[in-house]
Amino acid sequence: MNHPAPRHAFCLPAPVSTTSCSQSAFVKTLLTPPSPLTSTDLTTSVPSTRRCKLTAKQATNTDTSNKPSPFDNLNTDTDADIMLSPSSPQQKEADDLVLREVLALETNLARYTALMQLLSTDRSRFFRIAQSNLSVVLPIIYTPVVGEACQNFAQLDIPKRGTWLNPWEHQGKILSTLKAQLSANTPNVDVVVVSDCQRILGLGDLGANGMPIPVGKLLLYSAAGGIDPARTLPVVLDVGCDVDSVRDDPDYKGVRKPRVDPDTYDAFVDEFMRAIAEMYGKQCFVQFEDFGNANAARLLTKYRENFLSFNDDIQGTAAVGLAGILAALNIPDVEGDLSKHSFLFLGAGSAGIGIADLIAQMLVSQYGMQLEEARRKCWFIDSKGLVYRGRNARLTKEKEAYAHELPAELQNSNVSDMDLTATINALKPSGLIGVSTQKGSFNEQVFAAMTKHNAKPIVFALSNPTSKAECTAEQAYNYSNGNIVFASGSPFDPVTLGDKTFIPGQGNNCYIFPGLGLGVSLAAATVVDDAMVLAAARKLASLVARDRLNSGCVYPKIDDLLSISAHVAKAVWEEAERSGVAGKSGIDVTVDDIRDAMYEPGRVRLSGY
Ligand SMILES: O=C([O-])CC(=O)C(=O)O
Ligand SMILES: [Mg+2]
User: Where is the composition biased (Low complexity) (predicted)?
Assistant: First the structure.
């Protein structure tokens, strides 16, 4: 077995300061964390034990002050194992064995089940294994296997995790329910991930069975973002389910009713947001996950100004999508100037619109374009065909912004009859972004059209899980003869064509949300604004090493996620300061400081995977 990798041995191109925790200014800059605007007495009752949980290097820190540090809201875990760093050889061997046993199980669901059982019996071991083997463990606890876990949730033999709230039982009593259920176990929470499960990945409405999504996202917050797992809370708002086969399953644990009417729904979500702020303070970060498209966009607009909230499927996907595009600009044969690109989106849901909005914002803030002009760089195809100005079918407000005047040569053609290939031939985009959940929609003709108009087009098949991806990596490279920059939402293996091996980037939200949430927490930010999301995207793009780009990969290594999250967190914190929304500012904190403060119950590197 290999020895564990040294802590900062990753090959990230961005400069990493070597300032140790004991030397850095932040340790000496003792700050009082801002008190939450609204909190119960529990919120402030947890003693700060962060310092005594640090690694050996920091244990020698001569600064013995007990005054709060910027990291006081991280790692108040009382788990004794956290002290064990680096892990003992015996512990590493035992962890190695456990992971091998998990991986030897026959099905993905069996592996998922085993890991969830490990999580509840030995949390430190679970996170040691996860953090040391991110690229192996993530696909099991998160996309794509988490989709299967949701689809089979009623039958899964896993320990209960997370909180379900439903309007029939809990309307008017969410706060008291949370207090009764949670205050002993989770006296303080930094991050909540909430879903109403109306659109689980690309799998549709799964009702109360969607709990593995908030659970999985929060496991990543800890495994990849260093947020103490004891300070995270997964929630499903069980507001009913409109799919009979889900509701009628004899083992279904949710409420067997159709989704509630819009007024009840809005009142319930409102009450939930207020209850979380009341219970954990306004600085508790609430991530919305897998809501239906209409509610996702609406709730983001409704809450983003007044609550520390974030929609991962819109803002997280947007940041990851844009980061992949920005990184692609550094690949030979790809036009390096973003303003010269244009993009066609297959699918006009909140994810695609979110990416386009962020591209437009980048063009406005970095290239000085007018918003209208910037938006004209992005075209959409929805279920009724190309979105354009004057189309008969009604358009939502979000799509309206991308309903452009048709180019002159199309004005007399029957646009509604154009398929994807014909649309590419007409618009000649340099980038094609799949957010449609239509498996197989990027076929050979589509790649032929993209490569006909571009030396090296950008093609991202972002739909999740793997079964919904617009194409596989193998198809993408084969159909284009390797002449594309490809990325996908779910993981694909490298593909070899002749003497070249391509590494398909996994344009997955896990590159952004753990670091963004960490940065927001550290900054004690009051809101997440677009500039912070943009900063996260730009930072991520800057972390892709040249050798990855040379293999066609526009994202850094998943195994480097802890370090990536620290970089993203710092960028987000700095941007929050610039935007004037940081509760903590003027602090000289290095990426290493952040990295050292992240939850990490030990490291062990498993060889051979
Ligand atoms: O979970 C993922 O991999 C990305 C995501 O949020 C989604 O597809 O809804
Ligand atoms: Mg999602």
Answer: 37-49
